[in-house]
């Protein structure tokens, strides 16, 4: 398990183990989903390794892929076939566009969302659960680090 993957699991444990299940996020949203593997992995980690995962029947969790292009949606749908999910198209990765896209798929309460992103240049939407941001190493597609924060560049 890479250190980034371990960091990711620790952050998910903090979010999905350290508070009562009904006070946890209802949605994990990946901004800039490329193929759905990040949110699929997040869902499986929550399902298999947290208190929330043992309580999905009473406190369901759903993942949402936010994408710029419609042509990636079939790839994402394929990756997420066994995971409760929604896919939404966004015009851009600005706060207003992200909020609008979530509303278009029936998510009005941004306070119920944990956001994920690979990108450094996304406009972060304030959420009580913050964001988990992946960073990749320069020479590898493997994840080098995962971090959680409230706004971009709050932790260097």
Model description:
The protein is α/β, with parallel strands linked by helices and 156 residues long. It contains 4 helices and 6 strands; from the N terminus they run H-E-H-E-H-E-H-E-E-E. Strand 5 and strand 6 form a beta hairpin. Helix 1 crosses helix 2. The longest helix has 15 residues. The C terminus is likely disordered.
Key features of this structure:
single chain, 29% helix, globular
Write a compact overview of the structure shown.
With 156 residues, the protein is an alpha/beta fold. The chain has helices at 3-17, 37-49, 73-79, 95-104; strands at residues 27-31, 62-67, 85-89, 113-117, 131-136, 143-149.
Low-confidence stretches: 136-146, 150-156
Ends: how far apart?
23 Å
The share of residues in extended strands comes to 15-25%
Roughly what percent helix? 25-40%
The SSE order reads HEHEHEHEEE
Please describe the biggest sheet, giving its number of strands, its sense, and whether it closes into a barrel. 6 strands, mixed
- Count of individual helical segments: 4
Major sheet: order of its strands?
A: 3-2-1-4-5-6
**Rounded mean pLDDT score:** 78
Rounded radius of gyration (Å) = 14 Å
Number of strands: 6
The secondary structure category is alpha/beta
Any idea what the shape is? globular
């Amino acid at each position: 398990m890479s250190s980034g993957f371990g960091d990711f699991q620790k952050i998910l444990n903090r979010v999905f183990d350290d508070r009562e299940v009904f006070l946890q996020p209802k949605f994990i949203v990946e901004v800039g989903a490329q193929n759905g593997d990040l949110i699929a992995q997040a869902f499986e980690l929550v399902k298999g390794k947290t208190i929330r995962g043992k309580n999905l029947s009473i406190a369901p969790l759903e993942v949402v892929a936010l994408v710029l292009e419609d042509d990636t949606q079939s790839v994402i749908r394929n990756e997420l076939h066994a995971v409760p999910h929604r896919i939404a198209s966004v015009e851009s990765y600005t706060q207003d566009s992200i909020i609008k896209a979530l509303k278009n798929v029936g998510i009005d309460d941004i306070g119920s969302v944990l956001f994920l992103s690979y990108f450094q240049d996304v406009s972060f939407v304030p959420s009580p659960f913050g964001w988990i941001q992946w960073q990749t190493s320069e020479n590898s597609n493997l994840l080098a680090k995962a971090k959680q924060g409230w706004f971009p560049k709050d932790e260097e």
